[in-house]
Structure formats: C-alpha cells, structure tokens
Amino acid sequence: MALQIKTFRITDSASEEVVNSFLTGKRVHHWEAAYSGDPSLGIWNILVAYEEDNRRDEHRRMDNRGDNRGDHRGQRQGGDRRSSEPRREVAPKMEHTPPDVPEALMGRYENIRKWRNQVARDEKVKPYVLFNNKQLEDIVKAPPAGIEALKTIVPDMSGDLFDKYGNQLLGLVSATAEAAHS
Q1: Over the stretch 78-113, which tens digit does the pLDDT of each residue have?
Q2: For residue 53, which of 16, 83, 76, 22 has the smallest C-alpha distance?
Q3: Pairwise pLDDT comparison (135 vs 178), residue with the higher score
Q4: Full-model pTM
Q5: Are 101 and 140 contacting, i.e. CB atoms less than 8 angstroms apart?
C-alpha cells in the first residue's frame, strides 16, 4: 500500500485526541512536528506519513478461512478465493536522490526546504509549486543578492505566491548565508 500524508494542527487536548484517534489502525512510517505561531497560543503542526495497518485485517481473514474442519468461509468452489484475483503489480520504490550541495551547505538546504514545505502546507499546494529541488539547490549554492535575482532562480513561482513569500524567502536565504559565514 502506498504511503499517505496527513497534517494536523494541535492547539489543545481535544485536537490531540483527534490525532490519536486517527492513528488507530495505522502504521506510521515518519512523523514531523513543528512549533508555529505565537508562543502564548502553543500551536504545533504535525505531519504524519502512514499506511493503513492491514496486518489486523489479514489475521481476521486467516481466521475466517476455516481450519479444514468443514468451515469453508472465504473460499469459492474449486479453490481459494484469491486464486482468481489478478495480482497487483508492485511499483518499484523511487530512490531518494541526495541534494547536490556541499556538506557545509546542508544546514542551509534543510532550513530552506523545511520553510518551503511548511509554506506549501499552509497554502495547500505541492512544494514544487513554490520551487523545485533543483531550484532549491541553486538558491543554496549561489544565494541571490536581491528580489530580481531570486525571481530568475524561481521563475515558475506564481506572481501571487512570489509577492506573498518572495521577501520572506530572500530574508531566510540572507539569514542562513550570514549564519554560515559566522
């Protein structure tokens, strides 16, 4: 089964219970939490990569098949129910390509990547709508000096998103570049 992603905003114990209830029957492969907003509000954003935990269902199906004592639940005449079902092709796993940036710049890369992903979640768009990983690498390797230079690196970002987040991204790039030189 393919992994699915779900995000939650935790503001109180009731929203925490929603997360706990949602995770029942799921296998969590990865989760990430980020504190956001005004510190007095105490808002956490949670991202969960999960899949349905079918192991319980599989055990139930095995139990319902019978034990060769006349119990034929789950079987068709002429054999096992599954034999007539077509086999699903399993898609090959995509290999994760590490970013093409020097090790010394990985901190900057991760900071900007996390910012991009959070903005994408907030805007309910895919991260590549802001800028793709190759453009992220370009930003990290050669930080733009101004807003026009940034626009040439991320030309596909929509005008609305660029107007809304361009200065914020430029500030983040400048801050991470200065931190790297300190």
Answers
A1: 444 555 566 666 666 656 678 888 998 988 899 899
A2: 22
A3: 135
A4: 0.48
A5: yes
